[in-house]
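Milestone M4 deliverable, item 7.
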Amino acid sequence: MEWNIVLSAVVQKLLEVFLPILAVAIVGLLIAKIKLAIVQMRSWNPKATDLLEQAVTFAVTAAEQAGAAKLISDKKVYAMDIAERWLAEHGIHLDIELIDAAIEAAVYKQFNSAKSVK
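Output delivered:
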């Protein structure tokens, strides 16, 4: 019985130490993958990439403003809808997962750019 308590405490401490490091590594890997996908897409279709970047910047800003005004409940769904409709109006039809990844990257860039300046 005592070994279970000791083992549980050891595992808990290990998770407390290594889980944040693992989370940061996973986020870094995802951001790197998103950047790589955007660079590859830029070489494939520069106009679509530029329009995607404009759409997600516009959508993230609109979602933040609407969320601050409490007009919407889920900012990500709102941003996805705005970006998808904006791209469709410009004749660009992209995979929803790519739009989702670009929105995540734009949110990360928008909210972490001030932190890296300090």
